[in-house]
Design goal:
This protein has 376 residues and is α+β, with helices and mostly antiparallel strands. The chain is built from nine helices and 23 strands. The chain is 24% helix and 33% strand. It starts with 15 loop residues before the first helix and ends with a strand.
């Protein structure tokens, strides 16, 4: 497909000064551990727009050079038969690497690193191949406000680095290591980077949490509502480093919350019992997080997972109770997220009270310790 010019996000005339500053920061940034991550940006789509800010080299899976893409020109990549079609080229996989200090464009955002275009069973997957530390520059700003205390951002950097490497080692996906959504870690490329995220990542470069000599799966969440969870109560497998501990998230905007739903709305959402009369917790964690709820209606009853109710009602967590009054079900809840591992609002408040990032990590990841990543 012939390339075409278009208005690139984040690179409008008023933003060129920002780009110049970013390039300067990239140039003076300290050398980072050379761990490469593969992040799925667009997964199993029919086509995706790609490009580079500078001249880019295009190669196939054997490393053979197919040609070059000019800078600041967008191209549409398509799934084609058993391979990928881009511009005048077709191959089973296509790799795009910008020259100099360039960065790449995938879908609707700019990213550091390069691009892999891979044909999968469901279509085309566009993967951002990016240095681990550069990836974290973006993740920290997407998962926490860059305006939060630096010690909290450092704790997030170590947790996110540990989580990413755990997934890289055990994910088992031949195409990518992680996705870019909340189900993994939120990754938005250049747009969520900030001077504070550079500082947090650089100050903790290569640091991970380990338990029994292995990098931990460092889950984190926004707020637990006062106490985090033992992982096996929320999911299945017990982990010595994911134990429930007192949280320090009081005062967070999601510490407590409430909502309401009418009988008719709730009865339409939960089928098989007629008009719902009451909802009673059947199994909960020690902190009151709902594992299963008994739903009683005028024509039957059934047990339903707490996570399913959370999805149906759009609740912030499964730590909730439901009471019926005047034909309305009132929902009262605490926290935001699954409640396992580090609480981000807890880290925020601990930082405000003077704690350092090491203290936060040792509190939320019991039986784990800090270690320095060794890269050959």
């Amino acid at each position: 497909m012939v390339g075409y010019q278009f208005k690139w996000p984040k690179l409008q005339p008023l933003a060129y000064c920002w780009v110049a500053l970013l390039l300067w920061l990239m140039a003076i940034a300290p050398a980072q551990a050379s761990v490469l991550l593969r992040i799925a940006i667009e997964n199993q789509v029919s086509q995706v727009k790609v490009g580079s800010s500078t001249r880019a080299i295009v190669r196939d899976s054997s490393g053979r050079t197919l040609g070059e893409l000019p800078g600041m020109t967008a191209y549409m990549a398509n799934s084609s038969g058993s391979g990928v079609a881009l511009h005048n080229w077709q191959a089973n996989q296509i790799y795009i690497q910008p020259t100099g200090d360039g960065y790449v464009f995938i879908g609707d955002r700019w990213y550091r690193g390069g691009i892999s275009l891979v044909r999968t069973d469901g279509g085309l997957t566009a993967v951002n191949n990016v240095n681990l530390e550069h990836y974290l520059y973006s993740v920290i700003g997407a998962e926490m406000s860059p305006n939060w205390p630096l010690e909290a951002l450092k704790a997030q950097a170590v947790a996110a680095r540990s989580y990413a490497l755990y997934q890289r080692e055990r994910g088992g996906n031949p195409t990518y290591d992680l996705g870019d959504t909340q189900g993994w870690q939120v990754y938005k490329g250049l747009e969520s980077e900030a001077t504070s995220t550079y500082a947090a990542v650089d100050a903790t470069a290569g640091q991970v949490m380990v338990c029994n000599g292995k990098i931990i799966e460092a889950f984190f969440h926004s707020s637990s509502g006062g106490h985090t969870e033992n992982v096996e109560e929320v999911w299945t497998e017990a982990r010595p480093y994911l134990r429930g501990v007192p949280d320090y998230d009081r005062g967070a905007p999601v510490y407590e919350w409430s909502t309401s739903v009418s009988v008719s709305q709730l009865s339409n959402l939960i089928s098989g019992v007629g008009n719902i009369v009451s909802m009673q917790p059947e199994k909960t964690t020690k902190t009151g997080r709902v594992i299963t709820m008994k739903v009683i209606g005028d024509s039957g009853q059934r047990a339903i997972d707490g996570e399913q109710i959370q999805r149906l009602l759009g609740l912030k967590s499964t730590r909730f109770s439901i009471q019926k009054a005047n034909g309305i079900f009132q929902v009262y809840g605490k926290g935001f997220g699954h409640g396992v591992g580090m609480s981000q609002w807890g880290a925020h408040n601990l930082a405000r009270s003077g704690a350092n990032y090491q203290q936060m990590l040792y509190h939320y990841y019991q039986n784990a310790s800090l270690a320095k990543l060794q890269v050959e």
